[in-house]
Amino acid sequence: MNYNSISEIIKARRATPPGMLMKKEISKEVIEELLENASWAPNHKKTEPWRFKIYTGESKQKLADDCARILEAKRAEGYPVAEEKVAKFVGNLQKVPVAIAIVVQIDLAKRLPEWEEVAAVSMAVQNMWLTATEKGLGAFWATPGFVELFDEILELQPGQKMLGFFYVGEVMMDYPSPGRRDQTPNIEWK
Ligand SMILES: Cc1cc2nc3c(=O)[nH]c(=O)nc-3n(C[C@H](O)[C@H](O)[C@H](O)COP(=O)(O)O)c2cc1C
Prior knowledge:
Layout: H1 6-12, H2 28-38, E1 50-56, H3 57-76, H4 83-95, E2 98-105, H5 114-134, E3 137-142, H6 150-153, E4 160-170
Antiparallel strand pairs: 1-2, 2-4, 3-4
Helix pairs in contact: 2-5, 3-4
Binding site for FMN: 44, 141-143
Domain Nitroreductase: 23-169
Protein name: Putative NAD(P)H nitroreductase
C-alpha cells in the first residue's frame, strides 16, 4: 500500500475480525518483519518483555486441537468457560493464516512494575499492527476471556502471562472504521 505519512497508516489501521481475513498463507519474511519491528518498541530497563509464539499451518492446527481438548476438559471440571466461546475461539484459529500468541515476561527480579512490561508489549503489538497495515494486511488482537487457561497450552514459563492472540492475514474486503469520538474530553491543555 502507498501511504504518504505515519498519520495515514495510523488511521488506516483496523481491528480486522478473523472472519474478514483470508486463510491464504502469509510469507515467513513478512511475519519476520512484523516481529523485527515489534522488537523496536520502547521498554523500560531494556527488559524486552515480549515473547511471541508463532502458529501457522500444522502448529496452528495442533494449537486448535490442544485448545479444544484442554478447554473442554476444564469446562467439564466446572471451570466457567462457555462451550460456544471455546468453539468460536477454535474456529477463529482455523480461519486465520497466522496466530501469534502475545506473552509478557514479567521481570522476576521485580525491577519494574508489571504494568510497564505490559505497556511495552502493547507497544510492540502496535508496531506489528502498523507494519501489517502498511503492507495492506489486516490484523486483530483477540483477548479470549479464559486467558489463564493458556498457561498449560502455551507452556508458559515462570513470570509469563498470555495477553491474547494477534491474527494477521490478507483482508477479504474493506469495512468502515468505528472512527473515534471527539477527543476534547480526553485531553486537558494546561
Ligand atoms: C488489548 C486489546 C484487546 C482487544 N481484544 C479484542 C477482542 O477480544 N475482541 C474484539 O472484538 N476486539 C478486540 N480488540 C479490538 C478492539 O475491538 C478495536 O480496536 C476497536 O473496536 C476499535 O476498532 P479499530 O481498532 O478498527 O479502530 C482489542 C484491542 C486491544 C488493544
